[in-house]
Amino acid sequence: MAKVKNLAAKAAALANKPPGIFLVDPVIDPVYSTGQLRKYLVTTPSPTLIKRRLIINTKEYLFIVVLLLASTYVRLYNLSNPDSVVFDEVHFGGFAKKYVLGNYFMDVHPPLAKMLFAGVASYGKFKGDFDFKSIGDKYPELTPYVLMRQFPAVLGIATVILAYLTLRNSGVRPIIAFVTSFLLLVENSNVTISRYILLDSPLIFFIAASVYAWKKFEIQIPFSSNWFRSLFACGIALGLAVSSKWVGLFTIAWVGILCLYQLWFIVGDLSVSSKKVVSHVLARGAILLGVPAILYLTFFSVHFQLLSNEGDGSAFMSSAFRATLKGNKIPDNILANVGLGSVVSIRHAGTQGGYLHSHGHFYPAGSKQQQVTLYPHLDSNNKWLIEPYNYTLPEETFTPLVDGMKIRLKHTSSGRRLHSHDEKPPVSERDWQKEVSCYGHDNFPGDANDDFIVEVVRHKTPESAQIQVTAIKTIFRLKHAMTGNYLFSSEVKLPSWGFEQQEVTCASSGVRPLTHWYIETNEHEYIPEELREVTGYPALSFWNKFCESHVRMWKINQGLTEHHAWQSNPIEWPFLLRGINYWVRENKQVYLFGNAAIWWATTAAIATFGIHFLVSVLKWHSGQAIATDKNVYNFNQQTFSYVLGWALHYLPFFIMGRQLFLHHYLPALYFGILAVGHFLEIFTSYLTVKSKIANRASYGIIGIFVIISTLVYVHYSSLIYATPWTKDQCESAKVLSGWDFDCRNYHSSLSDYSQVSSPVEPINTNSPISPPDIQEAKQTDFVPQDAAKEDPQSSSEEPAAAAAQEEKVADEKFIQEQPIVPPLAAEAEETPKAENPVDPSEVEEISASSSEKEELKEKDSSDAVVEEAVVEDAVVEEAILVEEAQTEEEAPVEEEAPVEEAAPVEEEAPVAEDAPVAEDAPVAEDAPVHEATPVTVLAA
Questions:
Q1: pTM (global) more than 0.90
Q2: What CATH number is given for 334-539+900-920 in this structure?
Q3: H-type helices in 311-449, by residue range?
């Protein structure tokens, strides 16, 4: 009898003992209940399901510890190598510096991940004394670059652990969750992006946290404390993801679609009241949308507060925005009342092109008269005298400029008047646009084609400034009196002969806001004291700054259309047809490249599930029972959610017209790897019921796949860690022709690396075949070229000349302290160009002697960069730079063109067709000639 009791006690103990890690079954049969009219699926998770998925077996901690130790080694191994700037560390290290210094910059990504890098740098006592200027620049000893790299590496480690926990919560057994997480651990591209100062690792970590929180939320009792806790955690993770990159919007869409999918079943669950259904909708909507929105706005608020000083990125913003920054040069205390005799600068309101501008250069065709453009800098050539159209302006009088008044605008520097006529524009070929020029000469009274009518745009102008034109406040149009066309500018740029400045025309059609202008500066000598009011830009609210920055971010992002050497098409990504070159130095290389075994298995799994899904739908429509087995049911539910995540993070790139790169696929790949986990789960569970031999065979096959994946990781690890490799090893590793890492950089033998080698000529990354003619990438971190000052000799007053020279010296000191990007020829009129196209963010303006320029040219040649930083991660193409830049500092003055003996003849008569033809007088011999500031271009 005692033996029987002992046996019963042992049996009870065995029954209560948790199963081994190989025997855990996290899947239960779906629970159905019967209503009055139909059966329905019970959506509330059962306690058994919660226990099996949420409670980690003590033996599972061994798996977690192994993953933790292995991923720590893989991701933290030799982080100090390379000890120079790699790939987009140029951008994100540079942004960290600007956060430390508080200098405003413009980037196409939200600020969170960049602020986190800046926080880590500050913790490492970084003082902002390293520029992260070019790929390959050696890190100084005091720059905490290893600590900054440890941050994404730690997040990469955490992502592996999150993958394990996510799979356990979605119904995968511990051993399969371990195997799948190990695949993520040895996936080469994920290892690479987690070892450098890049945004991808934080982004994928936040996405992984969102997925984990959502999967945990799915198996909680509705409206319990754990249910709300998981829902809030998901909302916070979504907010962190979208605040790091806009790709987080795809993750929000994924959660939103799954919410609707679940609500469909909740509505069909007859045990859930209508009141609870409404509560589900309100709670999920408020938390999953409200929390991310609050976090997103909060991080931008912190972003604006940290970047309180004038910086290179402020050139992309409006004058009102820049006026909120410390150290700005935006005019304030502007004379408000504008009248005849006022000397004004006129700014275009429809684009960021800048000021109505003219200079001593002529159109090469058409009328061949003096050019009129938009110019983004403060400059004396932006000043115009407002004249009456039919009489001489009396001295010591003030006549206000009012709506409907006909005027002429005289360019104060050249003495010619703003003019339009029936000539084709210099670049635009639309019939509804006509050329705008400056025309006239000394003692020439002007003609009817100089006449413009002021039309106030009332719906954009405060009521107090609608009758009388007021500086800053009044938005107006200038209607050409003879033709009825309006002064117009778009984003079209003039060629090199126009210094790539923005074209100005007169238009009878087109987008109406592109004809809007306003007066920024205003001077009048004889305005009465009682009318001498001052104005300025109004203080912008946080919401105004938030909206404006997003308009600029979106516009810049959409403008990234120029071909890049390392870009790829989305159709290529699932097949891993090529990678991205990150860094080449010292006969070593860093190349972003995926683990082919894992990538191709992921693609095969997704394609297989697509076929399975279509077949299941056809069976269901034909009345056949589907997913009757609990494992198949869970496989369908969970794999569908992960494949949906893969699709939402991948397919939108097909409709994007901008440059795209392999790293854009990594968030989708994460979802794909989770889907592979469920394929391994259904594979083993199906064979388990067959026999023990089949079960063991299934694990043997999975083990072989893991070994192959690990060997692929090891074989290509030199491309991750920049460790020695030989040419033969490199060449033999090129399975596909598109795998274009350059093997010529490596030594023939590993023993050669022990010898001190001479400096290696950089290998071209623009073409994997031929090294010459490196074309640099365009980057986001743009700094408009700082302004050179007017030649003191052009001023008749010595004090003014001395002040100008003193300001020039101060500006040159500022230039030396901060990297300056020349806004191309558009902002440095006749500035000499570098022989090779370069990255605008890598350009420094230096006022130097010719010998210094030659020395810097030699440095440029010897320091030519092997790689190009990919444009997407903080990149703005060359054309966009010119369009966006609107630096208010005094700009480099254009170099005068060779003096023409006579300006081109204006064929139009002032009034009558047979009126005598007026000719431009020769340019005055004593006109000041301004030299362009020398610019030295340093390759990226």
A1: no
A2: 2.80.10.50
A3: 319-322
